[in-house]
Amino acid sequence: MDRFDWASDIETSEREALIASHLGNGSAEIPLVIAGVRCCRDCEEPIPEARLRVKPNAVRCVKCQERYERGA
Hints:
- The protein has helices spanning 3-23, 49-54, 62-70, and strands at 32-34, 37-39.
- The protein is mainly α.
């Protein structure tokens, strides 16, 4: 992945997060994209496609989201 691909991924992620926050239907957090793959903001592992189908604005995997919601 070159710098332009990386910059494009960042731009796309930021745009999606802004759209979601303005629509009020998602997290205002910016998704983490590594090499074109949506990854968990906490553990940096890829977020499974099944989770993204259910929650397209997810920024964490299920395990990390549960931990985040408990405040740990």
